[in-house]
Write a structure and sequence with these properties.
Blueprint (H helix, E strand, L loop, with lengths): L4 H25 L21 E8 L2 E4 L7 E9 L8 E4 L2 E4 L8 E8 L2 E6 L5 H4 L2 E6 L9 H5 L3
The chain binds copper (II) ion.
The site of copper (II) ion has 5 residues, from loops.
Length: about 160
């Protein structure tokens, strides 16, 4: 015996009904968490704010990871890679910021808000500045391509 026509209709009905039920279940169940898909992962978390700059302190030299500075907040990471105690001091229009004194191998961070102008960056530990642990950074220096005319005329 083969399957009677009535049984075939029942199977079709069940299949269709099942599909409907499935769709309904999806629609209903998805309301809570997945509707809209607005759950995004949080942005990368950084423990420090501002532009990161590394200052390598050696005997007796300071090497900054960048020479270009624009006004804004910077976090300097001072690393003492020398054999003596060193520290990092940044002095300029925005004031004076000094890191703690680092033993060899230590590092620390120094967050500074730089303003336009010239800053002295040096090691304040005795005599190190004169031994070569000093450099100067210029914040917001005019790009070489744009002339000075517009800025000089401003306000005068
Ligand atoms: Cu030093």
């Amino acid at each position: 015996m083969t399957i009677p026509p009535t049984r075939q209709r029942v199977l079709l009905g069940v299949a269709a009904g099942g599909l409907t039920a499935l769709l309904a279940a999806c629609g209903g169940g998805g309301n809570g968490s997945s509707a809209g898909g607005s759950t995004t992962s949080p942005p990368p978390k950084s423990t420090t704010s501002g532009t990161q700059v590394t200052a390598k302190l050696t005997d007796f030299h300071i090497a900054l990871s960048t020479g270009k500075f624009q006004p804004g907040q910077y976090t300097f990471t001072a690393k003492n890679q020398g054999q003596h105690e060193h520290a990092l001091e940044i002095e300029g229009p925005g004031g004076e910021n000094r890191s703690k004194t680092l033993d060899p191998g230590q590092s620390t961070t120094l967050t500074v808000t730089l303003k336009s102008g010239s800053y002295k960056v040096y090691c304040p530990v005795d005599g190190h500045k004169d031994l070569g642990m000093r450099t100067t950074i210029t914040v917001g220096g005019a790009p070489a391509s744009s002339g000075n005319d517009t800025s000089q005329n401003n306000g005068y």
